[in-house]
TrEMBL record:
The lineage of its organism: Bacteria, Bacillati, Actinomycetota, Actinomycetes, Micromonosporales. Its main location: membrane. The gene is tetA. This is Tetracycline resistance MFS efflux pump. The keyword Transmembrane applies. It is a multi-pass membrane protein. Residues 6-395 form the Major facilitator superfamily (MFS) profile domain. Belongs to the major facilitator superfamily. TCR/Tet family. It is found in: Cell membrane. SUPFAM superfamilies: MFS general substrate transporter. It comes from the Bacteria. Keywords: Membrane, Transmembrane, Transmembrane helix, Transport.
Protein backbone atom coordinates (compact mmCIF):
# COMPACT_ATOMS: atom_id res chain seq x y z
CA UNK A 1 0.00 0.00 0.00
CA UNK A 2 1.26 3.49 -0.85
CA UNK A 3 0.89 4.82 2.66
CA UNK A 4 2.58 8.21 2.24
CA UNK A 5 0.20 9.50 -0.51
CA UNK A 6 -2.75 7.97 1.32
CA UNK A 7 -1.88 9.69 4.61
CA UNK A 8 -1.31 12.96 2.73
CA UNK A 9 -4.80 12.65 1.28
CA UNK A 10 -6.30 11.93 4.71
CA UNK A 11 -4.55 14.93 6.23
CA UNK A 12 -5.82 17.06 3.37
CA UNK A 13 -9.34 15.76 3.91
CA UNK A 14 -9.39 16.70 7.60
CA UNK A 15 -7.77 20.05 6.83
CA UNK A 16 -10.39 20.83 4.18
CA UNK A 17 -13.24 19.76 6.45
CA UNK A 18 -12.11 22.29 9.06
CA UNK A 19 -11.13 24.85 6.43
CA UNK A 20 -14.56 24.68 4.82
CA UNK A 21 -16.29 25.08 8.17
CA UNK A 22 -13.90 27.84 9.26
CA UNK A 23 -14.29 29.75 6.00
CA UNK A 24 -17.85 30.66 6.83
CA UNK A 25 -17.20 31.83 10.41
CA UNK A 26 -16.19 35.43 9.59
CA UNK A 27 -18.68 35.86 6.73
CA UNK A 28 -21.87 34.31 8.10
CA UNK A 29 -23.07 37.62 9.65
CA UNK A 30 -22.60 39.51 6.36
CA UNK A 31 -24.03 36.69 4.25
CA UNK A 32 -27.10 36.19 6.42
CA UNK A 33 -27.72 39.93 6.64
CA UNK A 34 -27.56 40.23 2.86
CA UNK A 35 -29.92 37.28 2.43
CA UNK A 36 -32.46 38.18 5.13
CA UNK A 37 -32.07 41.99 4.96
CA UNK A 38 -32.74 42.05 8.70
CA UNK A 39 -29.95 42.00 11.35
CA UNK A 40 -32.16 40.34 13.97
CA UNK A 41 -33.24 37.62 11.54
CA UNK A 42 -29.60 37.18 10.51
CA UNK A 43 -28.62 36.33 14.10
CA UNK A 44 -31.44 33.80 14.39
CA UNK A 45 -30.62 32.10 11.10
CA UNK A 46 -26.88 32.01 11.89
CA UNK A 47 -27.55 30.14 15.12
CA UNK A 48 -29.95 27.81 13.36
CA UNK A 49 -27.37 27.01 10.68
CA UNK A 50 -24.83 25.99 13.32
CA UNK A 51 -27.26 23.78 15.21
CA UNK A 52 -28.56 22.03 12.09
CA UNK A 53 -24.99 21.36 10.93
CA UNK A 54 -24.20 19.56 14.19
CA UNK A 55 -27.54 17.73 14.17
CA UNK A 56 -26.93 16.30 10.69
CA UNK A 57 -23.46 15.19 11.70
CA UNK A 58 -25.06 13.29 14.57
CA UNK A 59 -27.63 11.67 12.29
CA UNK A 60 -25.32 10.66 9.43
CA UNK A 61 -21.93 9.85 11.02
CA UNK A 62 -22.94 6.37 12.30
CA UNK A 63 -24.34 5.50 8.86
CA UNK A 64 -21.15 6.62 7.10
CA UNK A 65 -19.06 4.55 9.48
CA UNK A 66 -21.20 1.46 8.94
CA UNK A 67 -21.14 1.94 5.17
CA UNK A 68 -17.34 2.10 5.26
CA UNK A 69 -17.24 -1.23 7.15
CA UNK A 70 -19.54 -2.82 4.59
CA UNK A 71 -18.34 -1.30 1.30
CA UNK A 72 -14.81 -0.06 2.10
CA UNK A 73 -13.33 3.26 3.22
CA UNK A 74 -12.33 4.65 -0.19
CA UNK A 75 -15.76 4.95 -1.89
CA UNK A 76 -17.36 6.45 1.20
CA UNK A 77 -14.59 9.05 1.59
CA UNK A 78 -14.58 10.10 -2.05
CA UNK A 79 -18.37 10.21 -2.29
CA UNK A 80 -18.66 12.29 0.89
CA UNK A 81 -16.03 14.76 -0.29
CA UNK A 82 -17.73 15.11 -3.67
CA UNK A 83 -21.06 15.84 -1.98
CA UNK A 84 -19.36 18.37 0.28
CA UNK A 85 -17.94 20.21 -2.75
CA UNK A 86 -21.37 20.31 -4.37
CA UNK A 87 -22.84 21.67 -1.16
CA UNK A 88 -20.30 24.48 -0.98
CA UNK A 89 -21.12 25.49 -4.56
CA UNK A 90 -24.79 25.50 -3.65
CA UNK A 91 -23.97 27.78 -0.71
CA UNK A 92 -22.44 30.25 -3.14
CA UNK A 93 -25.66 30.42 -5.17
CA UNK A 94 -28.33 30.17 -2.45
CA UNK A 95 -30.84 33.04 -2.74
CA UNK A 96 -32.68 32.58 0.57
CA UNK A 97 -32.04 31.51 4.18
CA UNK A 98 -34.14 28.39 3.67
CA UNK A 99 -31.99 27.12 0.83
CA UNK A 100 -28.87 27.98 2.85
CA UNK A 101 -30.27 25.94 5.72
CA UNK A 102 -30.90 22.94 3.46
CA UNK A 103 -27.43 23.02 1.93
CA UNK A 104 -25.68 23.64 5.24
CA UNK A 105 -27.52 20.65 6.67
CA UNK A 106 -26.23 18.61 3.71
CA UNK A 107 -22.73 19.94 4.37
CA UNK A 108 -23.01 18.76 7.97
CA UNK A 109 -23.92 15.30 6.74
CA UNK A 110 -21.01 15.20 4.30
CA UNK A 111 -18.58 16.51 6.94
CA UNK A 112 -18.81 13.13 8.68
CA UNK A 113 -15.72 12.13 6.66
CA UNK A 114 -13.72 12.54 9.88
CA UNK A 115 -15.35 9.30 11.00
CA UNK A 116 -14.02 7.35 8.02
CA UNK A 117 -10.58 8.98 8.27
CA UNK A 118 -10.19 7.70 11.84
CA UNK A 119 -11.20 4.20 10.74
CA UNK A 120 -8.77 4.33 7.81
CA UNK A 121 -5.89 5.31 10.13
CA UNK A 122 -6.71 2.31 12.34
CA UNK A 123 -6.62 0.08 9.24
CA UNK A 124 -3.19 1.12 7.96
CA UNK A 125 -1.14 1.70 11.13
CA UNK A 126 0.14 -0.63 13.81
CA UNK A 127 -1.28 -0.02 17.30
CA UNK A 128 2.02 1.42 18.53
CA UNK A 129 2.10 3.99 15.72
CA UNK A 130 -1.50 5.16 15.87
CA UNK A 131 -0.93 7.94 18.40
CA UNK A 132 1.53 9.59 16.01
CA UNK A 133 -0.87 9.18 13.08
CA UNK A 134 -3.80 10.56 15.05
CA UNK A 135 -1.53 13.38 16.20
CA UNK A 136 -0.96 14.33 12.57
CA UNK A 137 -4.72 14.29 12.04
CA UNK A 138 -5.10 16.58 15.05
CA UNK A 139 -2.48 18.91 13.58
CA UNK A 140 -4.36 19.09 10.27
CA UNK A 141 -7.54 19.79 12.23
CA UNK A 142 -5.85 22.68 14.06
CA UNK A 143 -4.30 24.18 10.93
CA UNK A 144 -7.68 24.10 9.20
CA UNK A 145 -9.14 25.93 12.20
CA UNK A 146 -6.50 28.66 11.79
CA UNK A 147 -6.57 28.95 8.01
CA UNK A 148 -10.34 28.84 7.54
CA UNK A 149 -11.33 32.10 9.24
CA UNK A 150 -8.28 33.92 7.83
CA UNK A 151 -8.97 32.84 4.25
CA UNK A 152 -12.69 33.36 4.69
CA UNK A 153 -12.15 36.91 5.92
CA UNK A 154 -9.83 37.80 3.04
CA UNK A 155 -12.02 36.31 0.32
CA UNK A 156 -15.21 37.55 1.95
CA UNK A 157 -13.90 41.10 1.70
CA UNK A 158 -13.92 40.67 -2.09
CA UNK A 159 -17.30 38.93 -2.31
CA UNK A 160 -19.31 37.42 0.51
CA UNK A 161 -19.93 34.23 -1.49
CA UNK A 162 -16.40 33.78 -2.81
CA UNK A 163 -15.18 31.70 0.19
CA UNK A 164 -17.73 29.02 -0.68
CA UNK A 165 -16.44 28.80 -4.25
CA UNK A 166 -12.88 28.48 -2.90
CA UNK A 167 -13.95 25.72 -0.50
CA UNK A 168 -15.64 23.83 -3.34
CA UNK A 169 -12.60 24.10 -5.63
CA UNK A 170 -10.29 22.80 -2.88
CA UNK A 171 -12.72 19.98 -2.13
CA UNK A 172 -12.93 18.84 -5.76
CA UNK A 173 -9.14 19.08 -6.10
CA UNK A 174 -8.77 16.79 -3.11
CA UNK A 175 -11.25 14.31 -4.61
CA UNK A 176 -9.25 14.24 -7.84
CA UNK A 177 -6.03 13.70 -5.91
CA UNK A 178 -7.60 10.94 -3.82
CA UNK A 179 -9.02 9.19 -6.89
CA UNK A 180 -5.50 8.53 -8.13
CA UNK A 181 -3.50 8.06 -4.92
CA UNK A 182 -5.87 6.64 -2.31
CA UNK A 183 -5.84 2.82 -2.10
CA UNK A 184 -8.51 0.89 -0.26
CA UNK A 185 -7.38 0.25 3.31
CA UNK A 186 -9.85 -2.51 4.04
CA UNK A 187 -12.02 -4.23 1.41
CA UNK A 188 -15.66 -4.04 2.31
CA UNK A 189 -17.33 -6.99 3.93
CA UNK A 190 -20.80 -7.58 2.46
CA UNK A 191 -21.53 -9.87 5.41
CA UNK A 192 -21.47 -6.80 7.66
CA UNK A 193 -25.17 -6.21 8.34
CA UNK A 194 -26.58 -2.81 7.45
CA UNK A 195 -29.56 -2.74 9.77
CA UNK A 196 -31.66 0.19 10.85
CA UNK A 197 -30.62 -0.46 14.47
CA UNK A 198 -26.93 0.09 13.76
CA UNK A 199 -27.33 2.75 11.05
CA UNK A 200 -29.53 5.11 13.06
CA UNK A 201 -27.58 7.31 15.49
CA UNK A 202 -29.49 6.57 18.70
CA UNK A 203 -29.17 2.80 18.39
CA UNK A 204 -25.55 3.01 17.23
CA UNK A 205 -24.58 5.15 20.23
CA UNK A 206 -26.55 2.90 22.60
CA UNK A 207 -24.77 -0.19 21.25
CA UNK A 208 -21.40 1.41 21.99
CA UNK A 209 -22.40 2.56 25.47
CA UNK A 210 -23.61 -0.92 26.45
CA UNK A 211 -20.10 -2.33 26.11
CA UNK A 212 -18.39 -1.70 29.49
CA UNK A 213 -14.92 -0.67 28.31
CA UNK A 214 -15.99 1.09 25.14
CA UNK A 215 -18.87 2.75 26.97
CA UNK A 216 -16.49 4.28 29.54
CA UNK A 217 -14.16 5.49 26.81
CA UNK A 218 -17.10 7.03 24.95
CA UNK A 219 -18.28 8.71 28.16
CA UNK A 220 -14.79 10.08 28.76
CA UNK A 221 -14.69 11.42 25.24
CA UNK A 222 -18.09 13.07 25.63
CA UNK A 223 -16.99 14.78 28.86
CA UNK A 224 -13.84 15.99 27.13
CA UNK A 225 -15.92 17.30 24.21
CA UNK A 226 -18.19 19.22 26.59
CA UNK A 227 -15.18 20.82 28.29
CA UNK A 228 -13.55 21.68 24.96
CA UNK A 229 -16.71 23.11 23.39
CA UNK A 230 -17.49 25.17 26.50
CA UNK A 231 -14.05 26.73 26.26
CA UNK A 232 -14.30 27.34 22.51
CA UNK A 233 -17.80 28.78 22.67
CA UNK A 234 -17.07 31.36 25.36
CA UNK A 235 -13.36 32.07 24.96
CA UNK A 236 -13.60 35.20 22.79
CA UNK A 237 -16.38 36.63 24.97
CA UNK A 238 -14.33 35.90 28.10
CA UNK A 239 -11.29 37.73 26.70
CA UNK A 240 -13.47 40.69 25.75
CA UNK A 241 -15.30 41.04 29.06
CA UNK A 242 -12.47 40.09 31.43
CA UNK A 243 -9.54 41.89 29.81
CA UNK A 244 -11.12 44.13 27.12
CA UNK A 245 -9.08 42.45 24.38
CA UNK A 246 -9.42 43.87 20.89
CA UNK A 247 -10.29 41.66 17.93
CA UNK A 248 -6.61 41.73 16.92
CA UNK A 249 -5.48 40.54 20.34
CA UNK A 250 -8.12 37.80 20.33
CA UNK A 251 -6.99 36.71 16.89
CA UNK A 252 -3.38 36.52 18.08
CA UNK A 253 -4.34 34.36 21.07
CA UNK A 254 -6.45 32.01 18.96
CA UNK A 255 -3.91 31.69 16.16
CA UNK A 256 -0.97 31.21 18.55
CA UNK A 257 -2.78 28.49 20.49
CA UNK A 258 -3.94 26.68 17.36
CA UNK A 259 -0.51 26.78 15.72
CA UNK A 260 1.24 25.65 18.88
CA UNK A 261 -1.28 22.82 19.19
CA UNK A 262 -0.74 21.77 15.58
CA UNK A 263 3.06 21.62 15.99
CA UNK A 264 2.72 19.75 19.28
CA UNK A 265 0.32 17.21 17.79
CA UNK A 266 2.51 16.65 14.74
CA UNK A 267 5.89 16.42 16.45
CA UNK A 268 5.59 15.55 20.13
CA UNK A 269 2.37 13.71 20.89
CA UNK A 270 3.38 10.44 19.22
CA UNK A 271 6.63 10.01 21.19
CA UNK A 272 4.96 11.07 24.46
CA UNK A 273 2.12 8.56 24.04
CA UNK A 274 4.54 5.79 23.08
CA UNK A 275 6.52 6.45 26.26
CA UNK A 276 3.54 6.71 28.61
CA UNK A 277 1.10 4.37 26.89
CA UNK A 278 -2.38 5.29 25.72
CA UNK A 279 -4.06 5.09 29.12
CA UNK A 280 -1.56 7.07 31.16
CA UNK A 281 -1.18 9.68 28.43
CA UNK A 282 -4.95 10.10 28.17
CA UNK A 283 -5.36 10.48 31.94
CA UNK A 284 -2.42 12.89 32.22
CA UNK A 285 -3.71 15.01 29.35
CA UNK A 286 -7.19 15.21 30.85
CA UNK A 287 -5.76 16.31 34.20
CA UNK A 288 -3.68 19.01 32.49
CA UNK A 289 -6.82 20.22 30.76
CA UNK A 290 -8.62 20.31 34.10
CA UNK A 291 -5.81 22.37 35.65
CA UNK A 292 -5.83 24.81 32.73
CA UNK A 293 -9.60 25.35 32.88
CA UNK A 294 -9.68 25.72 36.65
CA UNK A 295 -6.87 28.27 36.64
CA UNK A 296 -8.53 30.19 33.80
CA UNK A 297 -11.57 30.72 36.02
CA UNK A 298 -9.42 32.71 38.45
CA UNK A 299 -6.87 34.34 36.14
CA UNK A 300 -6.48 38.06 36.83
CA UNK A 301 -3.60 39.20 34.62
CA UNK A 302 -3.44 38.81 30.82
CA UNK A 303 0.07 37.35 30.59
CA UNK A 304 -1.03 34.29 32.56
CA UNK A 305 -3.46 33.46 29.78
CA UNK A 306 -0.58 32.45 27.52
CA UNK A 307 0.84 30.16 30.20
CA UNK A 308 -2.55 28.53 30.70
CA UNK A 309 -2.99 28.15 26.94
CA UNK A 310 0.37 26.33 26.90
CA UNK A 311 -0.87 23.97 29.63
CA UNK A 312 -4.02 23.39 27.62
CA UNK A 313 -1.97 22.59 24.51
CA UNK A 314 0.03 20.02 26.49
CA UNK A 315 -3.24 18.51 27.66
CA UNK A 316 -4.43 18.04 24.08
CA UNK A 317 -2.55 14.75 23.97
CA UNK A 318 -5.53 13.27 25.86
CA UNK A 319 -7.73 13.23 22.77
CA UNK A 320 -5.09 11.62 20.58
CA UNK A 321 -4.20 8.98 23.18
CA UNK A 322 -7.88 8.18 23.80
CA UNK A 323 -8.49 7.84 20.05
CA UNK A 324 -5.58 5.42 19.78
CA UNK A 325 -6.88 3.49 22.79
CA UNK A 326 -10.38 3.23 21.32
CA UNK A 327 -9.01 1.95 18.01
CA UNK A 328 -7.23 -0.88 19.86
CA UNK A 329 -10.33 -1.82 21.84
CA UNK A 330 -12.48 -2.76 18.85
CA UNK A 331 -12.22 -5.27 16.01
CA UNK A 332 -11.03 -4.29 12.54
CA UNK A 333 -14.44 -5.01 11.00
CA UNK A 334 -16.25 -2.55 13.27
CA UNK A 335 -13.83 0.39 13.29
CA UNK A 336 -16.06 2.48 11.03
CA UNK A 337 -19.21 1.73 13.01
CA UNK A 338 -17.60 2.64 16.33
CA UNK A 339 -15.95 5.78 14.96
CA UNK A 340 -19.30 6.83 13.50
CA UNK A 341 -21.07 6.37 16.83
CA UNK A 342 -18.34 8.37 18.60
CA UNK A 343 -18.64 11.14 16.00
CA UNK A 344 -22.37 11.16 16.71
CA UNK A 345 -21.70 11.58 20.42
CA UNK A 346 -19.34 14.45 19.64
CA UNK A 347 -21.96 16.06 17.40
CA UNK A 348 -24.39 16.11 20.33
CA UNK A 349 -21.88 18.18 22.28
CA UNK A 350 -21.27 20.46 19.30
CA UNK A 351 -25.01 21.02 18.91
CA UNK A 352 -26.02 21.54 22.53
CA UNK A 353 -22.97 22.94 24.33
CA UNK A 354 -22.53 26.25 22.43
CA UNK A 355 -26.08 27.28 23.29
CA UNK A 356 -25.89 26.06 26.90
CA UNK A 357 -22.45 27.56 27.48
CA UNK A 358 -23.56 30.87 26.00
CA UNK A 359 -26.55 31.05 28.33
CA UNK A 360 -24.36 30.10 31.31
CA UNK A 361 -21.78 32.73 30.39
CA UNK A 362 -24.46 35.40 30.08
CA UNK A 363 -25.77 34.40 33.53
CA UNK A 364 -22.23 34.63 34.97
CA UNK A 365 -21.86 38.19 33.73
CA UNK A 366 -24.88 39.16 35.80
CA UNK A 367 -22.89 38.17 38.89
CA UNK A 368 -19.58 39.60 37.62
CA UNK A 369 -17.95 36.18 37.51
CA UNK A 370 -17.19 35.46 33.84
CA UNK A 371 -14.69 32.75 34.79
CA UNK A 372 -17.24 30.56 36.56
CA UNK A 373 -18.25 28.81 33.33
CA UNK A 374 -14.71 27.39 33.16
CA UNK A 375 -15.16 25.74 36.53
CA UNK A 376 -18.05 23.83 35.03
CA UNK A 377 -15.87 22.85 32.08
CA UNK A 378 -13.14 21.75 34.51
CA UNK A 379 -15.63 19.42 36.23
CA UNK A 380 -16.26 17.67 32.90
CA UNK A 381 -12.50 17.45 32.23
CA UNK A 382 -12.04 15.87 35.66
CA UNK A 383 -14.90 13.47 34.91
CA UNK A 384 -13.14 12.47 31.69
CA UNK A 385 -9.91 11.79 33.59
CA UNK A 386 -11.76 9.69 36.17
CA UNK A 387 -13.51 7.56 33.55
CA UNK A 388 -10.23 6.98 31.74
CA UNK A 389 -8.46 6.06 34.97
CA UNK A 390 -11.00 3.37 35.92
CA UNK A 391 -11.21 1.82 32.43
CA UNK A 392 -9.25 -1.42 31.89
CA UNK A 393 -6.71 -1.17 29.09
CA UNK A 394 -8.06 -4.03 26.94
CA UNK A 395 -6.99 -4.84 23.40
CA UNK A 396 -9.06 -5.99 20.44
CA UNK A 397 -7.39 -9.44 20.63
CA UNK A 398 -9.95 -10.20 23.31
CA UNK A 399 -12.81 -7.90 22.33
CA UNK A 400 -16.00 -7.30 24.19
CA UNK A 401 -19.33 -8.36 22.78
CA UNK A 402 -19.68 -7.16 19.20
CA UNK A 403 -21.94 -4.30 18.25
CA UNK A 404 -24.11 -6.62 16.19
CA UNK A 405 -25.03 -8.54 19.33
CA UNK A 406 -24.77 -5.76 21.91
Amino acid sequence: MRRAPAVTFLLGTVFLDMLGLGLIVPIVPALMTSVTEDPAAAVFWSGLLGSVYGLLQFVVSPLLGRLSDRYGRRPVLLASLTCLGVDWLAHAASPSPWTLLVFHAAAGACAGTYTVVNAYIADVTEPGSRAHAYGLIGAAFGLGFVAGPVLGGLLGAVDVRLPFVAAAVLCFANVAYGWFVLPESRPGDRNTPLTLRLANPVSAVAAVLRRPVLGRLAGARFCADVARMTHQSTWTFFLTHKFAFSTTQIGVVLATSALAGAVYQARAVGPVVRRLGDKRAAVAGSLLGCVSLTATAFVSVPWLLYLLCAVGVLGSLAGTAAQSWISRAVRADEQGTVQGALAGIGAVAETVVPITAGVAFGWSLTYASPGSVYLGAAVFAAGSALLLAVTPDVRSTSPEQTLDRA
